[in-house]
Design brief:
Blueprint (H helix, E strand, L loop, with lengths): L46 H23 L7 H9 L3 H16 L3 H22 L2 H12 L8 H16 L6 H31 L2 E3 L10 H14 L4 E3 L3 H10 L3 H12 L11 H17 L5 H6 L7 H32 L8 H16 L3 H4 L5 H16 L2 E4 L11 E6 L5 E8 L11 E6 L2 E3 L2 E3 L2 E5 L15 H18 L20 H7 L5 H4 L14 H10 L4 H18 L10 H9 L18 H4 L9 H19 L4 H12 L7 H9 L6 H6 L4
Helix pairs in contact: 1-3, 1-4, 4-7, 5-6, 7-11, 9-14, 13-14, 13-21, 17-18, 18-24, 25-26
Length: 700
């Protein structure tokens, strides 16, 4: 799974000034951190520190904003726009810590604190966005933009600041401002509820296997992991959870069809059972509130509102992309499913392929066609070796060096911290790596930041970047061995991390990954391409037992099989994009059936039977818990970009320093300081086309 986790609540926040209250001595969140590089003092932070820190930081931040409003000098770019961007660092630090831990290291107490903090933060954000005096100063600077001598980044900051005020209700009447406050506060709360329900449902289910015969087909690594999970839970036998590193291989290899069905339905029915964790009403309420918010701001639907600030610009362009890709992908997907069905029939399976059968039989077909077994590759992808390989790629491309530092506090013993330096010896970032599943961690994989990069008073403040995944855990018998998909996921999230670590912007709100959502996946998805390059894999992929380099024939199997099920995988992603766009292009409040609505969208491109009692929307964390609402298409959009961009590396060499330097200069270092198409054309020399993607995926 490749996802960059963005918190909905954080989209409401502006950063404000550090607090100097009398609580500093006893509250580590309100004092100097006194840690290496001023990293968060996770080892000192206690539950009771969060709310006082948030309350105190908000109070101080209000004074900071008042000083901007009451400045007797006429509004200027520096005393208004820059002052606003540079304010409130302490509040930003505290909320980054709290919300990041709520996703990576949460419990019921953290969730309660987030629920308590969220309305306060939303109220405060609205107080800023809806303040007429502050907006008046911003507007005066904006009205002078043609006469101001500004750099491209300054122009972007001015435009973004003004439009953000507009898009957050600054031009509304007082009555409508109050409506806006109510809607935004409820949306923030509903998003948190949605995520809490999904995590609770995921943690609540376990498949306890007590008969060894029911393990038939499972690789030894999964058996060991299941035995260890059972031991940790204090039960006999083996335990399979809904965490993806267990779920995915079980669906591929378990010969017990009934158990595959049970596990599939358990995962597919999360938050769809009518219990206390059901998300159907939350989905309906969120989409209706988002529509109401968009209408309030003068937009016909939420997607139109969101896409105004995206490369795609409007729903019509998104739908055209999805339609074009559907036309190329659906015929191939249908052929692929028919081929899997035929192969299953040859093996004696005489029923229609169901979703819980597809991974099982498609894996067998893949092995038959390419002699490709994912388990055969895992010994070559020991996690420690993969980490070294990812770091080595960053070194070969961008001259980066990574130094572990055990003195930097971490929030869990699984987490490792690194100092990151460039070729000149300059500190570029602190990088946290957090790999394994646990009960307090959300599913999937993401990159996030505890501190953004920015420049102030001649100082280049470097970022604190974190990569969080749910990779296969080590067991008593063997180390963590990754699948090739997990290696690809690591490269994907590391691409996001590079975007953050190599940022060279002046303003925090434009640095790193603070870019258009349909552009943010370019730096991540382009990194996935190296996972298929033999010259790269040869640098680190060695058998952890024998030390033997990954054989040429195994690498070739990966390459030969890379487009296996290309149509199916494409149409699945397109389906997610269509569901997202459908929910966010509604033009009246939704009161119908969540399930019927979803199926009406997905049925025309469905290539496997629908399963009663399962639903995707209620567990679609990207758009209802995260920040991808009306933006999930961005993965396919960025695929077009990354395929086109990687052509330059293919033409001149996958480790070519000149191409890498251009990608760093024009893409990675620039953040959101200019329009992404301007940045892309500077790197590529032209706008992208879908040709490279269709060619790479074998669909053209």
């Amino acid at each position: 799974m490749k996802m960059r986790k963005i918190f909905y609540v954080m989209s409401f926040l502006l950063a404000f000034v550090a607090c100097k209250s009398g609580n500093e001595v006893s509250n580590p969140l309100l004092s100097e951190f006194n840690t290496p590089f001023n990293t968060p003092p996770f080892n000192k932070i206690k539950y009771e520190h969060y709310m006082p820190a948030i309350d105190s930081s908000i109070s101080e931040a209000k004074k900071e904003v008042e000083s901007i409003i009451n400045n007797p000098e006429k509004p200027t770019f520096e005393n208004t726009i820059v002052a606003l961007d540079r304010s409130g660092k302490r509040l930003n630090v505290v909320t980054n810590i709290l919300f990041n831990l709520n996703s990576a290291e949460t419990d019921t107490t953290i969730q309660r604190i987030v629920r308590e903090a969220s309305p306060k933060l939303t109220d405060y954000s609205n107080d800023i966005n809806l303040n007429p005096d502050l907006f008046a100063r911003v507007k005066k600077v904006w009205e002078m933009h043609d006469s101001l001598t500004l750099t491209p980044e300054q122009k972007t900051l001015l435009e973004k600041t003004y439009k953000d005020f507009e898009r957050n209700g600054a031009n509304l009447s007082e009555a409508d401002k109050e409506k806006y406050r109510e809607i935004s506060k409820e949306l923030a709360d509903l998003s948190l509820q949605y995520e809490e329900h999904l995590l609770a449902e995921t943690n609540a289910y376990t498949l306890n296997i007590t008969k060894e015969e029911d393990l038939k087909g499972l690789p030894e690594s999964l058996r060991d992991a299941a035995a260890q999970a059972a031991k940790e839970k204090g039960v006999d036998g083996w335990v399979i959870t809904l965490d993806y590193p267990m779920y995915a291989p079980f669906m591929k290899y378990a010969e017990n069809r009934e158990l595959r069905k049970q596990l599939y339905i358990a995962r597919g029915s999360r938050c769809f059972k009518g219990n206390q964790n059901d998300n159907q009403e939350i989905v309906k309420r969120i989409t209706s509130l988002r529509l109401e918010l968009a209408n309030l701001l003068g937009y016909p639907d939420y997607a139109t509102f969101i896409l105004e600030n995206r490369m795609a610009e409007n729903p019509e362009k998104v739908n055209k992309l999805l339609t074009d890709l559907t036309e190329a992908s659906l015929p191939a997907a249908k052929k692929e499913v028919a081929e899997v069905q035929e192969y299953a029939n040859q093996l004696g399976f005489n029923e229609e392929i169901q979703p819980w059968d597809f991974s099982f039989y498609s894996e067998k077909l893949k092995n038959s066609k390419y002699n490709y077994d994912e388990e055969e590759l895992k010994p070559y992808f020991k996690l420690d070796n993969v980490i070294n390989g990812v770091f080595l790629l960053a070194n070969k491309l961008y001259d980066l060096k990574f130094m572990p530092n055990a003195d930097i506090p971490v929030y869990n013993s699984d987490v490792k911290a690194y100092e990151v330096y460039d070729g000149s010896g300059k500190l570029m970032a602190i990088l946290y790596l957090d790999f394994f599943p646990r009960s307090g961690k959300s599913g999937g994989a993401w990159m996030t930041s505890f501190r953004p990069q920015y420049k102030e008073n001649g100082v280049d403040v470097r970022p604190f970047v974190s990569i969080v995944t749910n990779f296969t855990k080590p067991t008593d018998k063997q180390p963590s061995l990754l699948t090739h998909d997990e290696v690809t996921t690591f490269l994907h999230e590391f691409g996001h991390a590079l975007h953050g670590m190599l940022s060279e912007c002046t303003y925090a709100s434009l640095s790193g990954t603070s870019v258009y959502r349909d552009f943010v996946e370019l730096p991540s998805q382009i990194m996935e391409n190296w996972a298929l390059e033999k010259d790269y894999l040869d640098l680190f992929a060695v058998n952890y037992k024998t030390g033997e380099k990954i054989p040429q024939e195994l690498v070739q199997k990966i390459i030969d099989s890379r487009n296996f099920l290309a149509g199916y995988n494409s149409i699945r992603q397109i389906g997610y994009g269509k569901i997202d766009m459908a929910w966010h292009t509604i033009r009246k409040p939704f009161t119908g059936s969540v399930d019927k609505f979803e199926k009406s969208i997905i049925d025309p491109i469905q290539v496997l039977p629908n399963v009663k009692g399962t639903n995707f929307s209620v567990a679609f964390d990207h758009i209802f818990g995260g920040g991808y609402a009306a933006g999930y298409y961005g993965y396919k959009w960025a695929e077009v970009l990354d395929a086109d961009a990687f052509e330059m590396f293919k033409e001149k060499g996958i480790f070519n320093k000149e191409v890498a330097a251009s990608f760093r200069k024009n893409i990675l270092s620039k953040g959101g300081s200019e329009h992404p198409m301007v940045l892309y054309k500077r790197f590529r020399g032209q706008e992208p086309t879908v040709d490279a993607l269709l060619k790479r995926s074998g669909l053209k």
